[in-house]
Amino acid sequence: MIAFPSSVIHIFLQHILAAFLIRFKMYLQAKAGGLKGGFSACKRLDLHGIMKFMSDGRAHDEQTIKRYTELAERARRTYSYTYTGFHSPSGAALAYRAADEREIRMWGGTEGCERVVIRFGREDDLGYDEEFPIRIIHIEPKSGKFADKLSHRDFLGAILNLGIERDRVGDILIHENTAYVFILDDIADYVRDMLENVKHTAVRCTDVDEIPEEAGPKLIREEISVASLRLDAVIAKLFHLSRTDSKELFDREKVFVNGRVCRNAEYAPKEGDSVSVRGFGKFDNKGELRTTKKGSLVLEVDRYSV
Fold first, then answer.
1. How many CB atoms lie within 10 A of CB 25?
2. Do 231 and 274 meet the contact criterion of CB atoms below 8 Å apart?
3. Quick one: DSSP state of residue 270?
């Protein structure tokens, strides 16, 4: 019988537990309609349901990777770019398991978008470049005086109620009770012509070439001091978390560096790295500024704020 070191067994069990807790939370969220429902779900929890939900999640990831692989192979075979719909950071990160990173480019319509379209194909191989099939629609109340207070959820719900799939719609930027919606080109005209109301508010939809500066993500330049150049320390400092809570984000695969899942809490962020932490925000590392007399490192970061 092979004797494994206790440290290896400990790490293995940590990964199993982390994966179980993630799927367990998703299972409860799927079954529960709120806090009260969550308690009820806990009482009637069945192991079969949890295992099925975990299996469904893995199967979905494998299906996504298979689809990405097909798109990458088609791009090589036809010498033309292929595109996905819009994906969240976790979905987009799976692309690196399907193709070489040199064949992959991601874009959401403007800098700082969370949801992105993935393009497969290398410009060096194809001999040309082309724009992503993304349009911007501006949605605004016809009468601001009588308009409801509209939220991101209201605009998204109105669009999906037209029969549009979620992956056809990217980020929605809200500015002064209007929305700038990034949307795939093939359904942009339909949404623009058919969307007439958001909640009880009559709206008009128009194409725009770009979003105004005041509507886009805001970059806040900050200086933070950390004891060591570790990503978990930077995240803890920037988002006011304990180191334990920060490390847990890596186990739960909530941290992305330049579009890839980062599981290494000790990763030393490089100048120019773009870091996204699901549920907390996104920042760009601008590099080290100086070392304090006590030996701490002072970093400069640009934090995104919508």
1. 12
2. no
3. P
pTM here is 0.75
Beta strands in 99-200 (DSSP E): 104-107, 116-120, 134-141, 169-175, 178-184, 197-198
Residue 213 per-residue DSSP state: G
Residues 34-80 have pLDDT tens digits of 444 444 444 444 555 555 555 556 778 899 999 999 999 999 999 99
178 bridge partner residues:
175
Structure tokens at 266: 């000790």
Long-range contacts of 17-24 (CB under 8 A, 24+ apart): 18/251, 18/252, 19/54, 20/50, 20/54, 21/252, 22/252, 22/253, 23/50, 23/53, 23/54, 23/57, 24/50
What b/e sequence results for 83-121 when a residue is b if at least 16 CB atoms lie within 10 Å of its CB, and e otherwise? bbebbebebbbbbbebbeeebbbbbbbbebbbbbbbbbb
CA-to-CA dists, residue 7 to 3, 59, 224, angstroms: 12, 30, 33
Give all domains of the chain, ordered by start, each with its CATH number.
59-126 (3.30.1370), 135-215 (3.30.70.330), 218-305 (3.10.290.10)
Say how far apart CA 33 and CA 56 lie, in whole Å: 20
Average pLDDT of the residues in 235-243: 95
Per the CB < 8 A criterion, the answer to whether 250 and 278 are in contact is no
Dihedral sign computed on CA atoms, order 10, 15, 18, 24: negative
- For the chain, first and last CA: distance in Å? 57
Q: Show the tokens assigned to 241.
A: 């978390």
246 exposure class (CB count in 10 Å sphere: 0-12, 13-18, 19+): buried
Q: Single out the residue of 118, 171, 176 nearest to residue 304, CA to CA.
A: 171
Kindly provide the b/e burial profile for residues 277-302, where b requires at least 16 CB atoms within 10 angstroms of the residue's own CB: bbebbbbbbbeeeeeeeeeebebbbb
Whole-number Cα distances in Å, 169 to 128, 158, 181, 193, 255: 27, 12, 7, 16, 23
